[in-house]
Amino acid sequence: MWLAHIAVGLSIASYTDCLECMVLANAFHHLPSVDQLIVDTGLAKKEFHDAELHTPFFAFGVAAVAALFSWKYALLALICIGTHLLMDLPTDTGLMLLYPFSRRRFTLNLWKNTGGWGLGGFYRQKWAIALETPIWLFFFYRLIVTLV
Ligand SMILES: [Zn+2]
Prior knowledge:
Layout: H1 4-13, H2 19-30, H3 34-40, H4 56-67, H5 71-88, H6 119-122, H7 126-147
């Protein structure tokens, strides 16, 4: 998914009880996307996107490091990176869910990966709109509930 990552990061943050947890929720949720920045800067090949940083192995690794500080941060890392992976699973690229034991990719194959800046192309796909709309509605619900 695309912009819905923002809505999910903020929605998860709305359930936390401290400012650093809100910041961490968004940082953890967007952390796998760092691979696209690495590709964009030319430090890695295009195939690096949706690869090692988009795996449960990475999520557990980040959670292990976060656990050094707090079990709450570790749980937050698992939830936030886990939801990121779940949201990227419909992309035709697929994710290496069994990494490092296998590099086989799994996908729900509901839409095409339009690349790092392929926003326009992405939102021409019906499944993208169909799945992102309820996410945004939920975000606005959480926004209202949190602020009122
Ligand atoms: Zn992603």
